[in-house]
Structure formats: C-alpha cells, structure tokens
Design a protein that fits this description.
Elements: H1 2-23, E1 42-45, H2 58-74, E2 78-79, E3 86-102, E4 108-123, E5 131-142, H3 147-170
Helix pairs in contact: 2-3
Length: 174
C-alpha cells in the first residue's frame, strides 16, 4: 500500500506541476524592448542637428546612423518617413572638452569629451509615454594625445552609450 500511495502522490504532484507550468507564461526580451507589436508598427526617426557651440561635423551622421541601426536591430518596428506610431526627434546640444585629473604641477593629465543630446519621444497611441529628456555621456583620454587622433573613436563610443540610454528610456519603457 505504501508504494501505491507514493506512486499516487508522485503522479498527482507531476500533474499539478504540469498544469501550473502550462498556465504560466514567462516572457522576457533580451534587448529590453517593451513594445506591444499589436499596437505599435512604425517608427519615424528625425534628423538630430548639431546645436552645440563646438561642432564635430561627422557627429550628426554618426549618431543618427547608430540610433537608427540600434532601433532597427532591436525592435520589429518598420521605419517610415511619414506619420508613424512612435517618433524620435531632437538635437545634439553639447559637444565639450574639459580638463580632468589635475596633476601636482597644475596640468591636466586627462581630458574629458562630453556629448549631450536632447530627445523628444512621441507615442501617438499613449501620450503618457511621451518623453522630452536630455542624455549625456563622456569619455576621458590622456592629455598627451591630440583630440584629432582620438576624436572619432571617442565619439563612436559615446554615441553607443547615448543610444543605449535613449533606447532604454523610450522603447524599453524603463
């Protein structure tokens, strides 16, 4: 009788676990996008002109390409040039260089390149999701290096950071 009760309990436990697992659905996205693709189908990404006092001309195209590429790779939204469900627009408002890590002889051993981008995110389906926010990132480099020698690589890295911040704040709905 003991074996029969043990068998019945094991079978009952298995049935309960199977029914619980069948009724539960765990959903996660590795890219962090929190979009309902039944509601959102399209996105429009405007140009991001440079409005900073200091200008690095390739920055606008570099940033726009990275943003468009990231959204395209990490969502199923179709990018359009007309009316859309989601709209990203803004401007590059800051591009600055500042001394960091001053040494004992009052010279900077590091220099910081900072880029700031203002973004306006419009959700045409749910106005409560709209965002008008500024994002910023920086990289430090050795003061013995010329900015012209490291500028392109630093801008690439900084743009990657800012694009990730923008994506998390808008499409990630954090």
């Amino acid at each position: 009788m003991s074996k029969k009760i043990t068998y019945t309990l094991c079978w009952l436990t298995a049935v309960i676990l199977a029914s619980v697992m069948w009724s539960c659905r765990i959903s996660y996205k590795l890219n962090g996008a929190a979009l309902d693709y039944n509601v959102y189908k399209t996105v429009h990404i405007e140009n991001f002109p440079i409005r900073a006092a200091l200008v690095y001309p390739p920055l606008q195209q570099m940033f726009e390409n990275k943003l468009l590429d990231y959204v395209t790779r990490n969502t199923r939204l179709q990018t359009v040039d007309s009316k859309s469900d989601l709209i990203l627009e803004g401007e590059i408002t800051g591009y600055s260089i500042s001394p960091q890590a001053v040494t004992e002889n009052a010279l900077a051993s590091k220099t910081r390149l900072t880029i700031t981008v203002r973004v306006k995110y419009t959700d045409t389906k749910q106005e409560k999701n709209d965002i008008d926010q500024t994002f910023s990132a920086y990289r430090d480099f050795d003061s013995s290096e010329m900015l012209n020698d490291v500028q392109d690589q630093l801008c690439q890295e900084i743009c990657d950071d800012i694009v990730l911040q923008i994506f998390n704040a808008t499409f990630g709905n954090w």
